[in-house]
Amino acid sequence: MKKLLLLFSTFLLFGLLSAQRKDKDYSEILKSKNIYEINAFLRDAHPDDPRRSVLKPRVMEMMREYIKNALPEDQKVKQMQEQLALLKRRPSTKITFDEMNAIIKQKQIAKYNAELQAKQSLVVYTPSNAKNVYITNTTVAASTTIIKDTEAEEFNLLMAVSPTEHKNKTVQILNSLFDNDPMSKDCIVLIQNKSDCNIIVRMEGVGVTKYRLAVPAHNESSVVVNKGDYLFTSIVCGAQYASQKTIQKPIMVALGSSAKK
């Protein structure tokens, strides 16, 4: 019986390895003219693979050509520029989890520093049978609200912070972003709302520790919380979301997906 189990396990492992090799078959990679395929090879291949010396210069030239001929509104140009900059400094565009966190952190610092420099915008959100009206220093725009009526009033209250409250919150978030002390009791949580609906994210910890964060559609918001275990819940365009998370370092949570292409 043990021999049969061992034999079965061996075949299963062989099958998984074969499937992985099939999913990433680079046997014809030298013929490729696809930027994404060559990028994937450079990320996966062994550092001493001789094909790197041919494919890295090729993909860099392809990126330069793409950027040169791209239309002004092409959203891929920025990504190509970033990847080209990476390839000039390293063997591939592969970045570590810590590097990705650092990039997100720097973007958040820039965002909140800009908010401190600018005046606080007044934002008014109304129930789902009306429009959202955004009143800024220079523009007035409107967009459809899809948040449930039962949460619209609460959402409005959470969004209706005074300039002083907004500034204090922004300073708190910046302090948390700059704080690298592992003994710190606080941590920042970034929520990305990729859906077409305004949402309220609720974070319930131990005892009376609770946080609520209003996040407009296609936007993001941050909150500084005490480190610990939390139950995250929300209603995203009518769908219930719930997830348990242990917060010991800054995290980003992305919710929903836009129906727009």
Automatic annotation (TrEMBL):
Where the record annotates domain DUF6759, the positions are 164-257
Keywords noted in UniProt: Signal
Q: Which residues form the signal peptide?
A: 1-19
Return the Pfam families for the record: DUF6759
Q: What name does UniProt use for this protein?
A: DUF6759 domain-containing protein
Q: What taxonomic classification does the UniProt entry list for its organism?
A: Bacteria, Pseudomonadati, Bacteroidota, Flavobacteriia, Flavobacteriales
